Amino acid sequence: MAATSAPLYSTPATAREADPFPVKGMDAVVFAVGNAKQAAHYYSTAFGMKLVAYSGPENGSRETASYVLENGSARFVLTSVIKASTDWGRFLAGHVAEHGDGVIDLAIEVPDAYAAYAYAIEHGARGLVEPHEIKDEHGTVALAVIATYGNTRHTLVDRSGYDGPYLPGFVAADPLVEPPARRTFQAIDHCVGNVELGRMNDWVAFYNNVMGFTNMKEFVGDDIATEYSALMSKVVADGTLKVKFPINEPAVGKKKSQIDEYLEFYGGPGVQHIALATNDIVETVRTMRAAGVRFLDTPDSYYDTLGEWVGDTRVPLETLRELKILADRDEDGYLLQIFTKPVQDRPTVFFELIERHGSMGFGKGNFKALFEAIEREQARRGNL
């Protein structure tokens, strides 16, 4: 099959199918880490994820070891280098040395990787790996790779002809620990990227042009500012809102913003946090906190007036106060959210838990409280 062998798409039945760059959703968040075996254990025990697939020396991968964990449709792939012998292995080893543990790939599932890649390249993307197919006894997967901000990439994955545990080269694996009785989360809600000052609009335009994503939200000026620091953010998303990418850049403030801190310690642009959608944020927070996950703290004063502007939510106010869960409401409904502290020694990658009830926002009403909480942590680290 070749990228030029057929038109991108046949005449569609619906307007959404007419999209020149349709997506099915997030395929995986791929991390480069120093020790994938230990990282897999952490996300299994602390996040309640289930190991489903593995690739390593035992099944022919001499250069890397990779562990695939899932929770509902959310999939993490954790990869570390055993002994670098190719450009790919050297890239992974260099990525960990420069950035620490971090996201190297936001993989997107598409109905046709050849067509998606052709469209992206035609509209300005930088290709890293041309479309190709890999096969095993479970079927065929088509893959292609394009570059985005920093050293981050998007692998375009068509797995419609495959029923294996992850990809050819991986074998099914037993869970490392017994998963919780109920899933801690069900899906990836959005993935946030941090870029340099003055580059946010460039990358928003990239997603507009290369993937046909539209601008969903915009937060500038006083939207995301405290007494000491500020940032700006715009959110791009596909038409189905299955794939949402907020893009942040620092703004001028009295002191160093969280984005400045990230860029300094990560060594450049990259994925700042991954938001995980849960149906029961209360049980999820209780389960993850008991397993050792540390969340940002919120002062009691935040809850003193919360009910006045958020109104009633599924979770009683006193439970929100107890667990330090934030709430926000907009014209479409409300959401509940909470943020972990960074999950590695560098103050870089962290996670968000989010429970949506109609609202498709990102917690604008919580920005001040959230960023003040982050600033308190920055001050403790000596980085504010």
UniProtKB/TrEMBL annotation:
GO terms for biological process: L-tyrosine catabolic process. Its cofactor is Fe cation. Coiled coil: none annotated. This is 4-hydroxyphenylpyruvate dioxygenase. PROSITE patterns: VOC. It comes from the Bacteria. Binds 1 Fe cation per subunit. Gene3D superfamilies: 2,3-Dihydroxybiphenyl 1,2-Dioxygenase, domain 1. One of its GO terms (molecular function) is metal ion binding. Keywords: Dioxygenase, Iron, Metal-binding, Oxidoreductase, Pyruvate, Repeat.
